[in-house]
Amino acid sequence: MNVKIEIWSDVVCPWCYIGKRRLETALAAFPHRDEVEVVWRSFQLDPSTPREVTDETVAEHLAAKYGMSAEEARQMQARVTALAAEEGMQWRHDESPVANTIDAHRLIHLAEQQGGTALQGELKEALLHAYFAEARNVGDPVVLREIAVGAGLDPARVDEVLASDEFEDAVQADIQQAAAFGATGVPFYVVDRKFGVSGAQPTELFTQVLERAWSEAAN
User: Fold this and answer.
1) Is 100 helix (H, G, I), strand (E, B) or coil?
2) Sign of CA dihedral 152, 153, 154, 156
3) Averaged pLDDT, 181-187
4) Does the pLDDT of residue 1 top 70, yes or no?
5) What is the pLDDT of residues 186-207, one digit of tens each?
6) pLDDT of residue 114
7) N or C: which end of the chain has fewer CB within 10 A?
8) Taking the alpha carbons of 164, 131, 33, 2 in that order, is the dihedral positive or negative?
9) Domain CATH number, residue 25
10) Ramachandran quadrant class, 97 (left: phi over 0; alpha: psi -120 to 50; beta: rest)
11) Strand, helix or coil at 191?
């Protein structure tokens, strides 16, 4: 018996990373942790983001998009960065570049194909860490290749995927499934296709959902 958690998220979504840490904290204290499977599903916050690599930071982008000053945008980011620090993470999000994430999501699907959900989880964490803690451009194929190979993916297959549109249909299928579930934003969690959780909820809520899912799976 096991519990399956599917998580729709984006690798440039700050709340997705915070939610990931909170779920992990809940899982660490869950007695049946080894019988919980976590599967990462694709979602793009902004599919219209150009795929060309630029030096524009998220702060600059937010300022232009919402008509605020760069300082106001940085202050907005600082508030989220402070919440990340409460979860034990040190971010450089004010330096993070604007990035299209389609290729990152395609590699996350490759990771699942190559090493199951364990390898998929390794790559997901590596991508989030690179973007938020190191301010690296996860839309840059050179950066993506380094991260993916470092996480344990086969270099030749990484090159094949990045040079093609392989797994793009799988990414789009994930996004369509999220819409079918009624998800309008991420992170969005679906447990055993029975329970839905929206947003980076407190650790206590994740604990409650895990306990309920386990109880129902046992009956």
Assistant:
1) coil
2) negative
3) 93
4) no
5) 999 999 999 999 999 999 999 9
6) 98
7) C
8) negative
9) 3.40.30.10
10) beta
11) strand
62's CB contacts (< 8 A; 6+ apart) are 68, 73, 76, 77
- pLDDT at residue 54 is higher than 90: no
| Model confidence pLDDT, tens digit, residues 55-99 | 899 889 888 888 998 889 889 899 999 999 999 999 999 899 999
Position 151, amino acid: A
Closest CA to 149 of 115, 174, 101, 102: 115
The answer, as to whether pTM is greater than 0.90, is: yes
Instruction: Specify whether the CB–CB gap between 60 and 73 falls below 8 A.
Output: yes
Residue corresponding to tokens 């604007």: 98
Domain total in the chain: 1
CB 79, CB 18: distance < 8 Å: no
Which domain covers residue 24, as residue numbers? Answer: 3-218
